[in-house]
Amino acid sequence: MTGAGHLDRRALLAGGLAGATFALAGCASTSAAPSATGASPSPRPTTPTAAFTRLMEGNKRWVSGDLQHPDRDPNRRQLVSQTQEPFGSILSCIDSRVPPELLFDTGLGDLYVMRTGGEVLGPVVTGSVEYGPMTSGTPLIVVLGHQRCGAVKAAYAALHNDKPLAGNLQAIVKALQPAYEQTVREGGADPVDTMARAQVELTATELRSNQDLAPLVAKGALAVVGAYYSLDTGRVEVLAGAPS
């Protein structure tokens, strides 16, 4: 083999080694990069305004489809396995189309979530809502109603037609009666939607004036927000109580 041949062979080997090194470096870089599902936007919000901003930014991502899927990997699971500090408490409906963790683009350990038909309250539910602010310093409660609520629709029909529902469903109807009565007074083209919004505001007001939560609200450590979710657009509309 000539000297030129030796040079060509050495050049090829050098090029191959360089290419392999580059490829390995690329693989190492890719494997070390954090996954989208493990991303966390920022440290835990500690004020009502910061927590509210975090939630609404997440909802904007849900509406646009530009999701971060934060706090949803094994590392996060390990991090919160011994203790938790959720930054928000959500009281929403049981409706399968309204999962708070998804529509606010949050993850494991970010939210306390309570779900009842029509966001109705009762001693155990109220105690569950109180838990975060009173034990973990959770600075935000959101009462989240939604478009085309089946519980509200059924309760409206039962009360309007004076036909009680079967079993414990009637307990939901009874709890929703104040919202129904407010809707009758206000009128409107869509009474079910009006009633759903009234229920949110009545529930948020009741929680805001709760004897244990009211002092936290008064000193600015807690905000209780009433909100309404659109099934059509995915957008959360604030009805009352947004922190400034």
Order of strands across the main sheet:
2-1-3-4-5
Helix fraction, binned, reads: 40-55%
The total strand number stands at 5
- Unreliable parts: 1-36
Rg from C-alpha positions? 26 Å
Structural class: alpha/beta
What fraction of the residues are assigned to beta strands by DSSP? Answer: 5-15%
Number of helices: 10
Globally, the shape reads: globular
Question: Termini distance?
Answer: 81 Å
The SSE order reads: HHHEHEHEHHHHHEE
- Mean pLDDT, all residues: 88
Q: Major sheet: size, sense and barrel closure?
A: 5 strands, mixed
In short:
With 244 residues, this protein is α/β, with parallel strands linked by helices. It is built from 10 helices and 5 strands; from the N terminus they run H-H-H-E-H-E-H-E-H-H-H-H-H-E-E.
Structure description:
About 50% of the residues lie in helices and about 10% in strands. It has helices at about 5-30, 50-65, 75-80, 100-105, 125-135, 150-160, 170-175, 175-185, 190-210, 215-220; strands spanning about 90, 110-115, 140-145, 225-230, 235-240. Strands 2-1-3-4-5 form a five-stranded mixed β-sheet, with helices on both faces. It is built from ten helices and five strands; from the N terminus they run H-H-H-E-H-E-H-E-H-H-H-H-H-E-E. The chain is of the alpha/beta class. The chain is globular. Helix 6 (about 150-160) packs across helix 7 and helix 8 packs across helix 9 (about 190-210).
List the helices and strands and how they pair.
Layout (H helix, E strand, L loop, with lengths): L2 H30 L15 H17 L9 H6 L8 E5 L7 H4 L7 E5 L7 H14 L3 E7 L3 H12 L7 H7 L1 H10 L4 H18 L5 H5 L4 E7 L6 E5 L4
Parallel strand pairs: 1-2, 1-3, 3-4
Antiparallel strand pairs: 4-5
